[in-house]
Amino acid sequence: MTTVLPTTRQALDPEVALARLLGRLHPLRPEEVPLGDALDRVLARPLRASIPVPRFDCSAMDGYAVRAADVTVGARLNVLAEVRAGQPAAVPVTPGATVRVMTGAPLPPGADAVVPWELTGTPETGGSPVGELHDDVPAWVEVHDAPRPRQHVRRSGEDLDADDLLAAAGDVVGPAEIALAAATGRDTLWVTRAPVVAVLSTGDEVVAPGSHLRGARVPDVNGPVLEALVRRAGGVPLRLPLVADDPEALQQALDALSGRVDLVLTSGGASGGAADLVARLDGGRHPVEAVSLRMKPGKPAVLGVLDLEPGPGGGPVGFVGLPGNPVAAMVAFEMLAVPAIALLGERSGVAHEVEATAAERLPGADGRVSLVRVRLERIDDGRWQATPTGGERAHGVRSLVGANGLAVVRNVGGVAVGESVTVRRTNWSGARAV
Q1: Which residues, including other chains, have CB under 8 Å from residue 105's CB and lie 6 or more apart?
Q2: Higher model confidence: residue 419 or residue 10?
Q3: How far apart are CA 107 and CA 125, in angstroms?
Q4: Is the Cβ–Cβ distance between 246 and 269 less than 8 Å?
Q5: Which DSSP category does 333 fall into?
Q6: Model confidence pLDDT, tens digit, residues 80-101
Q7: CA distance 55 to 73
Q8: DSSP count for the chain of H helices, then E strands
Q9: For residues 194-217, average pLDDT
Q10: What pLDDT does 9 receive?
């Protein structure tokens, strides 16, 4: 196989590079999923009530269905029948009579109210108030409290009318939306598709975590962390075996993804070194571009689409080649992959940003945007405070613990203590949830 060297890298602001990537992608086609699989998915179509809720007039209490206008305190009514939830109400209520009903049972024809059993007496109690509801239906009941029309009756459609809008397209499905869908007789929902994202670590030096480390080998950090980040971003990760610095092996790994994935993430090999094979995809068969991002960390990247069959969502297969350094890879993922996954899955792609006060000096970067890992905390007056969690260099993996934001520093001189800075909130560490 002929090795194709990448063309001269173009230096791009991260926002420009992202716009180029997103311009080549489009939302995936929606899918219909069972209710049990719909949690935290995004509705692709409005959710409307298909039936009224309740579907029919029903009893809200265990008791006796009556005609309110015919019943006074002390009246004795003949009990004609009993109706339980799920049973048809075949026997109508007539003057001087009643039908015993259980909660949720259809209201018998002719009835417009329900007297709770606790407010009745029976032959067994000599007409005195009943202390316990027995399985045997009494011959008659004596009413101790005159009911009002519609008392303890749930009317058809009083909760939801057919075609009521329950949730709009774009809303995230929670347990409440699942309850609403089930209550209206649905067993599926149309949701946006969660992109299938391949995660591929490259490099002769990396081995699977837990493997014996020989010579200058290092554990694969990016594979596990990118898999976790993809899940957090709303994608479905497909973790692949490690690929060595071999052009044929890389191409075979990519070809094997044809028709299977919507987005491919690689880590490592994105710079301009002799062994950086991902960067050399630029100028080859796949329409991708090796770029130099004006940000720190996360400068080298490869962006575009792959010449593969469309994935499960029916769109072009996007490609994001991330740096090999774990921290740089995570930062680049936040800036590039998160918006791409959001676009494919039609989730909100706008990063949650807050204004915070710098608790310590935040370093800048000459000619680049400095993305500083920080810990966001509320201070006494309710404002956000940003404290850097590690050193200025990209390889500070320890700085990830407690980091829940990236301070966006555009000044070369950095941000001084007490000055304001924009922070992109992240969901990296479980130790400092805010």
Answers
A1: 58, 59, 83, 84, 85, 86, 87, 89
A2: 419
A3: 26
A4: no
A5: I
A6: 999 999 999 999 999 999 999 9
A7: 32
A8: 6, 27
A9: 90
A10: 83
DSSP tag of 426:
-
Model pTM? 0.82
The average pLDDT across 23-51 equals 95
Pairing status of strand 10-12 against strand 288-293 = parallel
Q: How far is CA 311 from CA 96, 232, 285, 315, 339, in A?
A: 70, 21, 18, 6, 18
Q: Which helix (H) or strand (E) holds 180?
A: helix 175-183
Q: How confident is the model at residue 1 (pLDDT cuts 50, 70, 90)?
A: very low
3-class DSSP assignment, residue 225: helix
* Coil vs helix vs strand at 332: helix
DSSP E strands in 258-316: the ranges are 263-267, 288-293, 295-296, 300-306
pLDDT at position 434 is 42
SS3 64: strand
State residue 225 phi and psi, 5-degree precision. -70, -35
Coil/strand/helix, residue 365: strand
Q: Nearest 5°: CA angle at 415, between 414 and 416?
A: 120
Length of the chain: 434
- The rounded distance, in Å, linking the Cα atoms of 405 and 425 is 4
